[in-house]
Amino acid sequence: MHDVGRVPRHPPHGNTLHNLKGNKRMRAIKAAIAGAIVLAFAGGGVLLGATSASAATPAFEPDPNASNGSITFYDASGNVITSGNNLSHLFDYAVASSDATRTGTTKASTTFAFPDHTKPDSTTWFQSTGSASTNFPNTTAPAPINGFGARRPVNQAQSTEANLSALLGTTTLDTTPGYANIVQIRLKDSGAGVGNGTLAKPFWATDIQFDAAAGTWTQVFPAVVTSTTTTLAATPNPSTVGNTVTLTATVAPAAAAGSVQFMDGATNIGSPAAVSAGTASTTTSTLTQGSHALSAVFTPTDTATYGSSTGTFTATVNPAATATATTLAVSGGYLTAGSAATLTATVTGPGTTPNGSGTVAFYDNASATAIPGTVTAGPTGTYVLDLPTGFTAGGHSVVAKFTPTDLTQFAVSQSSPQAFLTQAPLVGACAQPGSVCTDTQNVTATIPVGTLVINTPYTASAPLDLGTLVLDPTSTVLTGSKPFQNIVVTDTRSGNLAWTVSAIATNLSDGGGNPNSVINAQNLGLTGVAKTSSGAGFTGTLTYTANAAANGVAPGAAGSAGLGGT
Description:
By secondary structure, the protein is mostly beta strands. Helices cover 3% and strands 33% of the residues. It has 2 helices and 37 strands. The strands form 11 sheets. A 6-stranded antiparallel β-sheet has the order 5-12-11-10-7-8, with no helix packed on it. Strand 1 and strand 2 (46-47) form a beta hairpin. The relative contact order is 0.08.
């Protein structure tokens, strides 16, 4: 036998769809594939069972009729598959890479098309049904399929569908390089009033190449991406209703950038979280009581390099714990060192807190170590610790802490601290009944030396403004009046020491550079001085002296004027 070239074998009656189901012929076709036998058919056509060529991009790609995008195949557990050895059932789910654009589509189906290099228009290739239409979205499918949006076409192939073995005998395959052993799987959407999904275009498509000798298939377009794995953890687990639970997804390889959508069943938990250094996380406090099937769906940023993956985790949420309250009573001779003392804690809560529902430990002075001894559970939620030797001398602050046996049933609680001073036992004469004893204690304290401070409100930028001076009738004296205000002397020195305040006038200048534009300080005086207030806390005597101007002193001569007080 020899290869006489490809002669198309058309299906009966000129139909464009044909599905071979004859069991005997199917077995013969499968045997021919497995044995790599070349069979000649009437009319000169041949079915070639050659091994697959290298996984190069098919010559007809990109196919303009597949402008909707590509298809991702999944197995029954929701894992992405890009190859397999079951030619009788290639996949369980086929999912479109993008949402449907036609309004009203609710179903999706798959067809198998056989490339023909003589027909540039791929819609004229021989096609046969791959799987019947099924409704989408498919909420009963495993994650991540059940988490795709309502407009994402999803087809579920039954166990007898997606059967490449049954279809390989329905047409003669093209042997042209770039076409050989290639089958294009198409996903089409349809719906009431939308049209026949089998004939619809554009469509979603992915190309596979089969190896007849090995009985395997491999996705060749779009190119197979690096698979990823996603693991999910939830902490704490179990948790309590209302508590915050942190969900952490770890994506491998860590170089795969993208986002993770956390889900509780089919419900999204928040928005997608970005993956950083291989991890993504989110928190939630809305998980209800019971068991939750959580999942983390990883979507890569670069879908041409990395594949998506899903991690799952079963979280348990317990009902909210019953609040408790703990009180503490200290009794006995605890005020004297060495005397027996008893610590009694009472634990209560809504309803009855049964004995044995937890333990109580007592702590002194914020120690992390419990006071040693055996705590006995008494009636009505009481816990008692007997201390035969009591407490040591000194200050004490004791608390009782209740820890429930079942943290999902009761909550931890702690008493208020009981503070007390334990004194050393009396000895000698002081220990005799009716004795009156004294104990002298020495007390020391440091008293600050104290300071003497004077404060005035006048500064160079805010001086005491006397206004416009008035010249007297003799044209010899200029006068102006304005009270000094808020001059405060603060004396914190001990011993009631004396102090004196003096006001000294210096030369008045117009601020210019002329040395003669000056009124000599000796020609300045203070008159009409009067005390208005001695200030709070002042018990001394305020005295003051008025100084008149020394008229006739030549400009520039030395002199001073002042106000004194004691």
